[in-house]
Amino acid sequence: MIETTACVTSEALNIFGFGLCHQFPERSFDFAGVLWAVCARCSGIYVGLVFALVALLFAYRLKQRHGFMAWPYWLFLAAGLAFMGWDGVTSYAHMRETTNFLRWITGIGMGASLAPLVYFLLANNLAKKSLDEPVMGGGVRPWIAVAVSMLASFVLVYPAGPWLGGVGAVIAAICIWITFSLLALVLLGILKPFYRKVENWRNLVIPGALAMILGLLLIAALSLFNALL
Asked: Apex CA 106: angle with CA 150 and CA 156, to 5°?
């Protein structure tokens, strides 16, 4: 029964991530017989982004628009890009061997460094009230929130991966869905019915539900496109 469940879950995740990643088994996590939907680096990006964004929502709340990104943020983003770029480029160029451990942490760094920018887009498209304070500026609270989220992302695999088994793979897949839903929500926020209308979480129910449907449709469309290639 357990083997059958693991096999079905693994196959479902393979279909889910088909249009998003090369899905090489040797570059992906496999716990309790469940292969993750996308590779370790891509998984890190999605998990790192979603965990960091959730942390920022607790730190800021999605009730006020912000000034543009504070300058230290750009250093953070550059570091995330540089770290992942170094690992990816040097390994693909056969200059050195990389590991799933490095793929995972470089992916987390990239995803977490993108989360504040995604938060900025969401807040400035959806929030009704305005705040002059820039994102990632004016205190250490958001930085601490992002740092804690990165640690939580890392723990999802090291050391919790074997203990969680297929649950970790499902969490990562949900993070993929949430990421695409967030992109859809940013676009929905431009539309007049939702543009700068959010005062509380209830205001996000309708656009959030629509965004999750659109996110799933986008993932399915990418899988179909990949299948037709």
From this structure: 45
Torsion of CA 151, 154, 156, 159, to 10 degrees: -100
SS3 state at 196: coil
Considering only the C-alpha atoms of the chain, give the largest distance between any 2 of them, rounded to a whole number of Å: 56
Q: Kindly tell me the sign of the dihedral angle through the C-alpha atoms of 149, 178, 80, 108.
A: positive
The alpha helices in the chain, defined as continuous H runs, are 2-16, 40-60, 71-92, 100-126, 141-155, 160-164, 166-188, 205-228
Integer Cα distance of 202 and 198 in angstroms? 8
Helix (H) / strand (E) element for 65: namely: strand 64-67
**CA distances to 117, 155, 190 from 141, in Å:** 16, 21, 29
State how far Cα 116 lies from the chain centre.
11
How many C-beta neighbours within 10 Å does residue 193 have? 8
Q: What is the pTM of this model?
A: 0.95
Identity of the residue numbered 12: A
Tokens (6 digits) for 100: 């799933």
Q: Which residues of 93-105 are buried (b: 16+ CB within 10 A; e: fewer)?
A: eeeeebebebbbb
Q: Which tens digit of pLDDT belongs to each residue from 9-47?
A: 999 999 999 999 999 999 999 999 999 999 999 999 999
Read off the tokens for 203: 């205001």
**In 10 A of CB 107, how many CB atoms?**
28
